[in-house]
Automatic annotation (TrEMBL):
This is Molecular chaperone HtpG. Keywords: ATP-binding, Chaperone, Nucleotide-binding. ATP binds at E32, N36, D78, M83, S98, G99, T169, R335. GO terms for molecular function: ATP binding; ATP hydrolysis activity; ATP-dependent protein folding chaperone; unfolded protein binding. It comes from the Bacteria. It comes from Zhenhengia yiwuensis. Belongs to the heat shock protein 90 family. Gene3D superfamilies: 3.30.230.80, 3.40.50.11260, Heat shock protein 90, C-terminal domain, Histidine kinase-like ATPase, C-terminal domain. Pfam families: HATPase_c_3, HSP90. The gene is htpG.
Length: 551
């Protein structure tokens, strides 16, 4: 015999869970309540566009957040669609019943799904993470009487006649002692900036306790027109063809508080097979060893989700600075979910490809600019090659090397240049100062070497050797190119023998064999060669903290 039943959920049990665990960051209530206000406005605008209603007031659409520290309240007001009593009961009191989804289903055919933010029907309750009592005062666009709802976080609520006389909704949070930091105007403003800086409706923040300002001389200040805290039409939502270089640069400095100009940028704009918009900037490094500290901000429909989510953005791209807005990524991202999501992999592949395409096109069309950026972008590109096979394959022929003559050339160009002297060996300098005398020696003899002085280069060299099997990278003191050897001078064998005895006894190693050769150089009197393989092995062991004695 089998039996079926319904799971029943008691709100007295679920409330504390929502309050505590739904979102890990308490400040997220800001995002949820303000995004509901924006949704309410977008819904009303949509109804007007569809001819379902008309906007008689013609007041500009906006959201106002008023903080009253003395009364411990934060009020979020909108002039959106409002709610009738039935709607309050349905959307607010039925936890996890999303009015956003309901709205979308109702107007499914006429709606562009991406525009409404809400989804889960839980956002409103995040207000109880910071407030003990929440009130709603709302007037529906339908002309139904205004409604007042209030709830003290228990399982009952009160409904009565509301006070609002204009269309829209006030959400009033009575903030708890515990969360009173949000009652500070500046804390609240910066939290709003963090989550709402690109929300699609102008948002104003007002300090209710601030008296009308008069200047020290007692004259009344001319009141400046208040400015919204957000940018409702961020640059990345526009078509790339409509944006100017100046706009890209201004957007960069405003968004990332970086007053150095970016080197270049990539405007992402994709509709199929998924929606994705954004701009990635390549920041300029002040010197080539500077630690690159990027930041990729992830948005969902102009609502901030989080910074630097490496499950969505390939890790090496986190060295860049940028915005990625993808409406298909859930707002309350759980990282383990994202990790296993094939869709997320597609996003990251797409972004990686776009970045490689941009770099290759710069190489092909603006080589001089590409070269001038190389010092700044090379750690990023090399890291990308080490981390992403596909990126590496695409970028293989567009990696530049800086030669000791300060030229930037590709590996193939280098090999071509040295083909008569180097036999597929790439001589490199890993430390400009310590190896400077060898650099001079190379220059004296018209030989070429490249600089590979960045910490990432030692890993990158092995990577390049794997990719170019017949090429060998040699540190400038690891081997002597035949062009540096004086062929016709006789070797002093007695000296050679003496040195042999000296080295074998000092190093206590009778397998050692000392071989003398004559160097063509004015600057370097003598040179002790250090085998590339054993040096690399030693360096690796040091890196892993292994004992290198006896090597
Ligand atoms: P979601 O936004 O995912 O639908 P929420 O819990 O955030 O879920 O909100 C529940 C519902 O309450 C919304 O879908 C909407 O119908 C209604 N609502 C919340 N805030 C407002 C508001 N400011 N104006 C009009 N309706 C609102
Ligand atoms: Mg919501």
């Amino acid at each position: 015999m089998s039996k079926q039943g319904n799971l029943s959920i008691h709100s007295e049990n679920i409330f504390p869970i929502i309050k505590k665990w739904l979102y890990s960051d308490h400040d997220i209530f800001v995002r949820e309540i303000i995004s509901n206000a924006c949704d309410a406005i977008l819904k009303f605008r949509k109804l007007c566009d569809m001819g379902e209603t008309t906007d008689e007031t013609q007041t500009p659409f906006e959201v106002t957040v008023t903080v009253n520290e003395k009364e411990s309240t934060i009020t979020v007001s909108d002039n959106g669609i409002g709610m009738t009593e039935e709607e309050v009961e349905k959307y607010i009191t039925q936890i996890a019943f999303s009015g956003a989804e309901d709205f979308l289903n109702k107007y499914q055919d006429k709606m562009d799904k991406e525009q409404i933010i809400g989804h889960f029907g839980l956002g409103f309750y995040s207000s109880f993470m910071v407030a003990d009592t929440v009130e709603i005062d709302t007037l529906s666009y339908t002309g139904a009487p205004s409604v007042h709802w209030s709830c003290d976080g228990g399982t009952t609520y009160e409904l009565s006649e509301g006070k609002r006389t204009t269309r829209g909704t006030d959400i009033i949070l009575h903030v708890t002692e515990e969360s009173k930091e949000f009652l500070n105007f500046y804390t609240l403003s910066s939290t709003i900036e963090k989550y709402c800086n690109f929300m699609p409706v102008p948002i104003y923040v007002v300090d209710a306790n601030k008296e009308t300002t008069t200047s020290a001389e007692g004259e009344e200040n001319t009141v400046e027109a208040p400015k919204p805290i957000n940018d409702p039409i961020p640059l990345y939502t526009k078509k790339p063809s409509e944006c100017t270089d100046e706009e890209y640069k201004t957007f960069y400095s405003k968004t990332f508080m970086d007053y150095n100009e970016p080197l270049f940028w990539i405007h992402l704009d994709m509709d199929y097979p998924f929606n994705l918009k954004g701009i990635l900037y390549f920041p300029k490094l002040h010197n080539e060893y500077e630690m690159v500290e990027g930041k990729i901000k992830l948005y969902n429909n102009q609502v901030f989700v989080a910074d630097n989510i490496k499950e969505v953005i390939p890790e090496f791209l986190l060295l860049l600075k940028g915005i990625v807005d993808c409406p298909d990524i859930p707002l309350n991202v759980s990282r383990s979910f994202l990790q296993n999501d094939g869709f997320v992999k597609k996003i990251s592949d797409y972004i990686t490809k776009k970045v490689a395409d941009k770099l290759i096109s710069l190489y092909k069309k603006e080589l001089d600019h590409y070269k001038s950026c190389w010092d700044s972008i090379s750690p990023f590109i090399k890291y990308g090659c080490l981390r992403e096979e596909k990126f590496s394959t695409k970028m293989k022929d567009y990696i530049l090397y800086k030669t000791i003559d300060d030229e930037y050339i590709t590996l193939n160009d280098y090999l071509e240049k040295v083909k008569d002297t180097n036999e597929n060996k790439v001589f490199y300098v890993s430390d400009k100062e310590k190896q400077s005398q060898y650099v001079t020696m190379f220059k004296e003899n018209n030989l070429s070497a490249i600089y590979l002085t960045h910490p990432i280069d030692s890993s990158f060299i092995s990577h390049m050797e794997m990719q170019n099997k017949d090429v060998k990278f040699m540190r400038i003191d690891a081997d002597i190119s035949s062009a540096l050897k004086e062929e016709n001078t006789a070797i002093d064998t007695a000296k050679e023998e003496k040195l042999n005895t000296l080295f074998t006894s000092i190093l206590n190693n009778d397998k050692l064999k000392v071989k003398l050769e004559t160097l063509k150089s004015q600057t370097v009197p003598s040179m002790l060669l250090i085998s590339e393989e054993s040096r690399r092995m030693q360096e690796m062991m040091k890196l892993y903290g292994m004992d290198t004695n006896g090597m």
